Amino acid sequence: MAVTDAARAAPRVAVATTGQRRRIRPARVLLHVFLIGTCVAWLAPLLWAVYTSLRPYAETAERGYVSLPGHLGFSNFTTAWTNADLPRYYLNTLIVAVPGVLLTLLFASFVGFAVSRFSWRFNVALLVVFTAGNLLPQQVIITPLYRMFLLIPLPTWLNDTGTVYDSYWGIIAIHVAFQVGFCSFVLSNYMRTIPHELTEAALVDGASVWRQYWKIVLPLCRPALAALATLEFIFIYNDFFWALVLMQSGDKRPITSALANLEGLYFTDLNLIAAGSLLAAVPTLIVYFTLQRQFVRGLTLGATKG
Amino acid sequence: MAVVRGASPAGTATRRRRRLLTRRDKVALTLMVGIPTLVHVGLVWVPALGSIALSFARWDGIGGLDTIQWIGTLNYRQIFSIYPPFWPAVQHNIIWLAFFVVVPTVFGLFLAVQLDKQLRGSRIYQSILFLPVVLSLAIVGFIWQLIYAPEQGLINNLLGRTEQGNLIDWLGNPKLNIWAVLIAASWRHVGYIMILYLAGLKSLDPTLREAAAIDGANEWQAFRRVVFPALKPINVVIGVITVIESLRAFDIVYVINKGTNGLELLSVLVTNNIIGEASRIGFGSTLAVILLVVSLAFIIPYLVVYFRGSFSREVR
């Protein structure tokens, strides 16, 4: 990961631009034309959704969807927002995503710290188990998990059905359990790049293991933690499967999972489907536009080791 | 500080560290490793083993655990012989994988190589091409319904095929819909592949390419003989991601038609056997085990290679 950043600043820029600039001009122009075309094609589905969502149903019914606009407005958005009671689902998502991300990172940094700072016989085995677990398709574990959640009781003040099934606790727990695999893997790689001398000096000075973790290693991991937090927020926000299967009550589901029900009930025409899905996408798009670098770093941290 | 001079520096460090750990430190470390491990193993690997156990059982899930009947390999035999959606689902998963390998991976690599060329505006191109990656596949499914809808969709309207006689039912025709869905899924997947390859390309040693250029290699030769072989670690990662994503595919087909009528996938069949009308726990678990075996066949070799490589280089 550090390699990536270093390479970006490497003197390659200078080499490439001075010598070859004039010769490859036509090819460059062609390349730009191709890339612009591809980008337009890439944006088209989203722009089409935006266009559809801005037009009243009556007008599209009369003129067809592929037609010039007579009236553009946000009425579909307000209808989708109020009829489907979207704020409730955003809140459901927050209830799951905030503790989900925090706990995932806390646990993963524990494991990463222990594995990267102390040599045990089981270090590699532990990381293999964690990483392999994260790579499993969710469906491999869903059947027993569903039965387990039905069997594990929860006091009714924690969940009104009295089981982990159909509760936020269950959804948070499975997110944490699943994602901690990936994050431990990334963080242990990251922490191994922190010089051992730092913690060893602290150890010699009598700092406890917890102090080394909390005061020395964790602050140095801030960049990795920021990247992973962004990535994990998107992952958990975008989860469709866990809440679909492990939650029965439609009105408790986070927004992405809830969309499947909302489509049939409230999003009755394409204009409302467009508005509803765009509204559901807005938080991820905001995160993308504000924290794009973090998101990309998070993704590539896992793939290219430091 | 008295440092014991041992045979190897690493060994000394380990011994010294272990000696300096107090009881409280050991408790702290045990908890730090133990709690996450318990959560992960308990909620991921225990259910995975549970799938294996239940795959030999018949259980409708209504009674308690004592109503489970153990029936040997009957579920497996039935799935392979008389369960109608199984082979179509296998076929669709294979198509999914093959398509993902050929189309988005190659295109993503191509884009990454182009965008790595110190282009003006490269960042903007990257941002746009990468944008769909933040959307969930469920939302991708919704957005593409606006394009594929038979009478009101964008494509048919542009093609002028919206009449009953000549319309193309992109998502309803079981011969077409898997391809339509794959295009929508690729829209999202290309950006992911592109960004991974870009990271890989940026981490390459620039002298590699300079050497190739000095030797008189043209762009394609340099890519084929020098750059692509040097990307091997990232190729392996992308290979594993592609396989896993192909096996996991679920959201988009579930949103479109609940994974029926030409969009059957193994992941959907597993889910149908637990939240569908008939709750067949054993049967669903057997399908899950088949998924498990296929995924582990790719995951294990990958991890063995990865960890052997990274830990042999590392002293500690």
In brief:
The complex is a heterodimer of chains A (306) and B (316). Chain A is an all-alpha fold.
Mean pLDDT of chain A: 86
Shape of chain A: globular
Give the class of chain A from helix and strand content and strand pairing.
Answer: mainly alpha
Oligomer: heterodimer
Percentage of residues in helical conformation of chain B = over 70%
SS summary, helix count of chain A: 15
Helix content range of chain A: over 70%
Low-confidence stretches of chain B: 1-11, 312-316
Order of helices and strands of chain B: HHEEHHHHHHHHHHHH
Radius of gyration of chain B, taken over Cα atoms and rounded to an integer in Å? 26 Å
Separation of the first and last Cα atoms of chain B? 22 Å
Largest sheet of chain A, described in full? none
In which order are the strands of the major sheet of chain B placed? 1-2
Structural class of chain B: mainly alpha
Structure description:
The complex is a heterodimer of chains A (306) and B (316). In chain A, 46% of the residues are buried. The N terminus of chain A is likely disordered. With 306 residues, chain A is mainly α. Chain A is 76% helix and 0% strand. Chain A is globular and about 80 Å long. Chain B has a two-stranded antiparallel sheet with strand order 1-2. The N terminus and C terminus of chain B are likely disordered. Chains A and B meet through helix 1, helix 2, helix 3, helix 6 and helix 7 of A and helix 1, helix 2, helix 4, helix 5 and helix 6 of B.
